[in-house]
Amino acid sequence: GENVEQHPSTLSVQEGDSAVIKCTYSDSASNYFPWYKQELGKGPQLIIDIRSNVGEKKDQRIAVTLNKTAKHFSLHITETQPEDSAVYFCAASEAGDDKIIFGKGTRLHILP
Amino acid sequence: GAVVSQHPSRVICKSGTSVKIECRSLDFQATTMFWYRQFPKQSLMLMATSNEGSKATYEQGVEKDKFLINHASLTLSTLTVTSAHPEDSSFYICSARQAFSSYNSPLHFGNGTRLTVT
Description:
Radius of gyration of chain A: 13 Å
Strand content of chain A: over 45%
Distance between the termini of chain A: 41 Å
Order of helices and strands of chain B: EEEEEEEEEEE
Number of helices of chain B: 0
Helix content of chain B: under 10%
Low-confidence stretches of chain A: none
Oligomer: heterodimer
Mean pLDDT of chain A: 93
Order of helices and strands of chain A: EEEEEEEEEEE
């Protein structure tokens, strides 16, 4: 089955700087890669997703890149703000499979 | 759009009692809902897939007789923790995918239920 590895587990970034979170997946059949943001005491919220027919996707300060050959994908947050502090999860899903497999999460701290 | 409501947000119960958690899709229909469990500072662990009108599919190691799932309509799934024990204390989160959408469409999550068993 699919296995998703996520790094780093904790990341501290100065406000205004960029943050990068990296994930790898094991199943080459996976073709859908969402990213979720989870604030304390709340459920995860989808922030961006990418499908395997696309190499990069951007939404304002958030971008995701996908390298199918290397089986890794990354989340980039630019001009970080205090409200970006949260836990971020990457995930992967295989075509024809209902399940989404999550990485272990990255706790992002934005330092003032 | 695509709002998932989970109730209650917090519940404290005594050991040996049962607790029911509801998950509703408010503005869309969901043939499939998922139940996750999350321990502090850990990732989401899929417990079961709930299919409207049929039996739930449980992940390996999850006791189906302890965690009863019912998905009676296209907008409601319930998780009942039966004979709860302190080790069942956790954060339970449901998610839903819009009916008739592709497998690779977004999952929408509820805000979770914090269960504490005393």
